[in-house]
Design brief:
heterotrimer, A alpha/beta (127), B alpha+beta (150), C alpha/beta (335), A: alpha/beta, Rossmann fold, 5 helices, 40% helix, B: 150 residues, alpha+beta, seven-stranded antiparallel β-sheet, protein-glutamate O-methyltransferase activity (chain C), Bact_Chemotaxis_MeTrfase (chain C)
Chain lengths: 127, 150, 335
């Protein structure tokens, strides 16, 4: 499994990537939505994208909308990982096409739980 | 943001940020007892909330504590040197996560600025301090402040 | 501020014996931070003074409070996921197929801790049964403390972050300050009550029993007696769901294992259909011949052992009896 971790904070990219790698993912990183789109357009294939909301250049919600508009990327699972935590913001992200939503702060276990819901935990990782 | 944001809620946010992302378990953050020490090298990180209700959420501490926070967030060893880029990014992210959660307490929808890290918090005319939360993290002082813009 | 070695050793010993959690050297700061609010509430300036009083007074309630404060009890929504998909894809369809009218579905969520399991069941059943669905859930735990939170339906943001699907979150939760409040429509489908698994079961019959990650803490004889009590309150054709690492196989023969998805569920075999190694029904409620007092908990909890024979002389279902919290194995703590 490959995951694209999109966050303008390198600290957060490292934390999310480490949690995913622990679960057997290989990770790619991008510092904003545009960089992430560029990676996908260059042919990088990923199963999952973890997406911050507030970023310079292109925010996470715009990225989600752009990915959902391209049928070539319809198999990518999109999970927001953001400090935006109003009920209405979660509704907006789901309406734009995000599959899951994780609020910062989170524990590595919380990432694992979400991926389990999404069917993205490899069988050998199951206890 | 005075009426909208309660002291206990800001404390709950700080506790969650520390227990989930910095310490890995709850119990290392408590209210600071007594007078705050004067920081030799102060450091502050903040985010602004824009919208009908606007304000600022900031985290202030001293440089050494900010180094410790950075090491904890990045899973670095106790004596590993912390570079300025990691410091700015990690400490700024603490303010970002605190600020984003404070924003969600507001009755109106607002947007969040990207975090800024500096040695002093610049004064904004016409602001009023609404909360000052003094915290003790492993014997070190950290203060979370929430300001209201008028 | 710092803790004496003596205080730390006492606290670590209490916690280890009651929760099997080991507080290693280096956790002194953690112990002090978590116990300081309790010490101050009790009128002491610090934790050392408080622990001195605890040791002198020897009150059960103090020890329970200490263990509660030091054992984090994180439970996920839709924990392990598989049992909830089994409910959707297998259990409810099977019950529907076998009954001409699927009237009120009754579910027992045993050792429900802070309520994530029964609420996850309620969300799943609302979904799968559709509008006008009628079901009720009896959710039990030994600890009044965890039940109080479960009843309130109020969860911290870290708690709602654990395994709650985002579509369920926006549908059933509203913000309450920094916390999240679960919808009343779910809350009213659940009755929370205090219950010890070694006592008579709650009033059945049930169509579905969730008893997950509890049996692993008991020895074979106790497992067997718990399963036999569950058997008695499960309707013929009903379903028992255990934890991923648990099974009835080799424990109790009155169950048929049904593989579902990545796991298994169990259905009761009618009494008499299979030769039963279980004792006669009149002694089922906790007494296993040859073991007096019946083993209550793992060997790491010798202080908690208590004969389970005390309350089992009646064959009718009494109303729920209350017992002092913490006088027995805290189901919530070790999950």
């Amino acid at each position: 499994m490959r995951a694209l971790v999109i966050d303008d904070s390198r600290t957060m990219r490292r934390i999310v990537s480490a949690a995913l790698e622990e679960l057997g993912f290989t990770t790619l990183q991008a510092g904003d939505g545009q960089q992430a789109l560029d990676l996908l357009e260059s042919g990088e294939e990923v199963d999952l994208a973890c997406i911050d909301w507030n970023m310079p250049v292109m925010d996470g919600l715009t990225f989600v909308t752009r990915v959902r508009a391209n049928s070539a990327w319809r198999d990518i699972t999109l999970m927001m990982v953001t400090t935006e935590s109003e009920h209405g913001q979660i509704v907006r992200a789901l309406a734009a096409g995000a599959h899951e939503y994780l609020i910062k702060p989170f524990t590595p276990d919380a990432i694992r739980d979400k991926l389990d819901l999404l069917g993205l935990i490899p069988a050998e990782e199951h206890v | 943001m005075t009426a909208a944001v309660e002291h206990d809620q800001v404390y709950a946010i700080a506790e969650e940020v520390f227990s989930a992302m910095i310490d890995g378990e709850p119990g290392y953050l408590r209210p600071w007892d007594g007078e705050l020490p004067v920081a030799a090298e102060p450091l502050v990180a903040w985010v602004d909330v824009h919208g009908e209700l606007a304000g600022r959420a900031a985290v202030t501490t001293d440089l050494e504590t900010a180094h410790e926070l950075t090491r904890a967030l990045l899973g670095m060893g106790a004596d590993e040197p912390v570079g300025p880029e990691d410091l700015n990014d990690a400490f700024g992210e603490v303010a970002n996560v605190v600020g984003g959660n404070v924003k969600a307490l507001l009755p109106t929808q607002g947007s969040l600025s990207l975090p800024v890290v500096a040695t002093v918090l610049p004064e904004v005319p016409g602001t009023s301090l609404t909360h000052e939360l003094r915290l003790d993290w492993r014997g070190r002082s950290i203060v979370v402040v929430v300001w209201l813009f008028q | 501020m710092s803790l004496t070695q003596d205080t730390f050793a006492f606290v670590a010993d209490v916690v280890r014996r009651r929760s099997a959690i080991q507080l290693e050297t280096g956790k002194e700061y953690l112990v002090e931070s978590r116990l300081l609010p309790i010490a101050r509430d009790a009128g002491h300036p610090g934790v050392d003074a408080y622990i001195r009083e605890v040791r002198a007074a020897q009150r059960e309630a103090d020890l329970t409070q200490i263990v509660d404060a030091l054992t984090t009890n994180e439970t996920s929504w839709f924990r392990d996921n598989t049992p909830f998909s089994a409910l959707r894809t297998h259990i409810v369809p099977a019950l529907r197929a076998e009954r001409p009218v699927l009237d009120t579905l009754r579910v027992w969520s045993a050792a429900c801790s802070t309520g994530q399991e029964p609420y996850s069941l309620a969300m799943t059943l609302s979904d799968v049964l559709g509008p006008g669905a009628r079901f009720d859930i009896t959710a039990t735990d030994l600890s009044e403390r965890v039940l109080a939170q479960a009843r309130s339906g109020r969860y911290s943001q870290l708690e709602v972050n654990r395994g709650l699907p985002a579509p369920m979150m926006v549908r059933y939760f509203t913000r309450n300050g920094h916390d999240w409040q679960i919808a009343e429509e779910l809350r009213r489908t659940i009755t929370f009550q205090q219950h010890n698994l070694l006592d008579l079961p709650p009033h059945g019959p049930f169509d579905i029993v969730f008893l997950r990650n509890v049996l692993i803490y008991f020895d074979l004889e106790t497992k067997r007696s718990i399963l036999s009590r569950v058997h008695r309150v499960l309707r013929p054709g009903g379903f028992l769901v255990l934890g991923a690492a648990e099974t009835t196989i080799g424990v109790d023969h009155d169950w048929e294992r049904v593989p579902v998805d990545r796991g298994s569920v169990y259905r009761p075999v009618q009494a008499g259909a299979v030769p039963s190694p279980r004792p006669a029904p009149s002694t089922l409620a906790g007494v296993v011949p040859g073991t007096t007092p019946a083993p209550f908990a793992p060997a790491t909890r010798p202080g908690l052992a208590r004969p389970v024979t005390a309350s089992t002389t009646t064959t009718t279902f009494p109303p729920t009896r209350t017992r002092p919290t913490g006088s027995a194995f805290e189901q919530g703590v070790t999950r």
